[in-house]
Amino acid sequence: MKFNLNLILISLLAMGVIMSGCGGEKKEETKAAAPAEIHISAAASMTDAMKEIADNYQKKNPNIKLVLNFGSSGALQQAIEQGAPADVFVSAAQKQMDALEKKGLLADGTRKNLLENKVVLIVPKNSKIDLAKFEDVLKDEVKKIGLGEPKGVPVGQYSEEIFKKLGIIDKVTEKAVYGSNVRQVLSWVDAGEVDAGVVYATDAAVSKVNKVICTAPEGSHKPVIYPMAIIKSTKQLDAAKAFATYLAGADAKKVFEKYGFAVK
């Protein structure tokens, strides 16, 4: 049998072209973009509410990763001044935000009053000490009073204002044990390590092992306002603005109110 050599060669060449074409094609692998990482520095008193809000936000925005950092507002302020990662800052007092703004560390036009809170006097739930008002912490039965450290912890600053207004700050100081943030003071009261403590109403509400004696007298301290702002050095300005807008919106408001905050 005779073969047509030309036909065979042409067929082989055609096959080679097809095979080389198939082998040469490289499927483009599409890699999902890494989520934009937003660092949120927030007052310790916001821990529970902010965690829930962050979870809700990330479910709706899977392209965003929120990194939460909680502490006393003074410590967070100092960390931001020293260059710690922070895109959004929420303080428990105006003082710390004022300091950052004075140093030009806030993004223009992003500062906003977000929340309001109350200051309360609490005791361990099983306490037998008869207290009815802030002045009663001077009773002999009260040996230790848990307070926030007034230099950097806003609840400590409010506490100091209250006791000064009542004219008993010197005697209170003699009994004071100072915590590094409001949650530390709360933990001391809950564990019975102090006889009484001054915290925010929202902190007292998240615990079932303390009882609230009273709210601070009207006019005894500055209003407990939580300002929010975007840090000027952020590399994720649009994402930070989007989250800040969400914090001031209806969905976040429901969560904040659930934990006892008043939304501005």
- The CATH homologous superfamily of the largest domain is called Periplasmic binding protein-like II
- Major pleated sheet: 6 strands, mixed
Low-confidence stretches: 12-30
SSE arrangement, N to C: HEHEHEHEEEHHEHEHEEHHE
Specify the helix fraction band. Answer: 40-55%
Instruction: Quote the CATH topology of the largest domain.
Output: D-Maltodextrin-Binding Protein, domain 2
**Average pLDDT across residues?**
91
Apparent shape: elongated
Distance between the termini: 96 Å
Q: Count up the helices.
A: 10
So, CATH architecture of the largest domain? 3-Layer(aba) Sandwich
User: What Rg do the Cα atoms give?
Assistant: 29 Å
Order of strands in the sheet with most strands:
2-1-3-10-4-11
Secondary structure class reads alpha/beta
The portion of residues forming beta strands comes to 15-25%
